Amino acid sequence: MKKILCTIGTRPEAIKMAPLIRALQADPDFDCRVLATAQHRQMLDQVLDIFGIVPDIDLDIMQPGQTLSGLTGRLLLRLEEVLARERPDAVLAQGDTTTVLAAALAAFHERIPFGHVEAGLRTGDLDSPFPEEMNRVVASQLSRWHFAPTGLAADRLLAEGHDGARIHITGNTVIDALHHVAATAPDPGLGLDPARRMLLVTLHRRENFGAPLQRICDALAALVRDNPEVQMVLPVHHNPNVREVIRTRFGAAERVILCEPLDYTAFVGAMQRATLILSDSGGVQEEAPALGKPVLVLRDTTERPEAVMAGVTRLVGTETETIRAAAQELLDDPAAHAAMARHHSPYGDGRAAARIAAVLRRDLLGGALPMPEGVPMAA
């Protein structure tokens, strides 16, 4: 039996790691243990409850007002202790957070193979997104296994000189999670007016703090003002740099529903109910196209260009008038809306976790699982 340590720290990581954790825990040849860093405490716990995952180790690392350097330092020290005690045969982490950076580096220091789930995403700009672009570049340098969600992500890794034998195109595990939850047709439970169209907005990116966030809010306010048949749902992120701005701007606004961050089940229900989604989230760029929902990406760059190239998301930046005009077009023009609402999923078919588990079985146990058809296994 091989011991695998799956590390999770934030809500998106938990969503995307949950299908893989469940697949590994169902295999009697793996001892899959879950380590929660709790980089984001409350939002992480919501997802773990939905998928029935109980961490074996909980570092509970989050502190109010934590800095990136302080968080990284605490994580490295605690992870060093855990890895020395547990001695897993492999460490896995997903995405581009500080938890991923620390897990990859701690595993490297302990000479333990590291597997990077959702490898190969790039913007080419270390400042955008910050610090995520640097985190994933460093994680790639330290990875034994690169689990790339798409062929384009695999091509980026090859262009950087990574060994093609270590790159595996699996699809994105977020689609596995989405299929599992969306099948229940969840109700977002927000008291929505069924006669009004709904805009769903999520905002949390560090590079949008300050003036960009104010410009985005100006665009959102104009859209609600100019479209009386529209209601806007805006789950308010816990980060005070976002929370204070949003609550000050929209706390008393008509047809704007401010709420706490939704648990994943309710959020999938909100996406299914939405007419249009405006977001700076990476996960939303992957999930919404699979549900046939147009997304306007409130960023200047994206490491997920596949959906942009397919025409189901659009990169609109943070300038007020650009955002307002793009959203208004989709509200006014049924043909333009239909062109983006095509249920097209460039990020996978819901079988990514099985592909990753098969690679680990082959490399750690010398065997192979029956492979799902669809996405090829190697770049």
From TrEMBL:
Enzyme Commission number: 5.1.3.14
InterPro entries in the cross-refs: UDP_GlcNAc_Epimerase_2_dom, WecB-like
Reactions catalysed according to its record: UDP-N-acetyl-alpha-D-glucosamine = UDP-N-acetyl-alpha-D-mannosamine
CDD domains in the cross-refs: GTB_UDP-GlcNAc_2-Epimerase
Gene Ontology molecular function: UDP-N-acetylglucosamine 2-epimerase activity
Pfam families in alphabetical order: Epimerase_2
Keywords: Isomerase
Stored SUPFAM superfamilies: UDP-Glycosyltransferase/glycogen phosphorylase
Coiled-coil intervals, chain numbering: none
Domain (UDP-N-acetylglucosamine 2-epimerase): residue spans on this chain: 22-360
Keyword Isomerase: yes
Family per similarity comment: Belongs to the UDP-N-acetylglucosamine 2-epimerase family.
The protein, known as: UDP-N-acetylglucosamine 2-epimerase (non-hydrolyzing)
Organism, as annotated: Paracoccus solventivorans
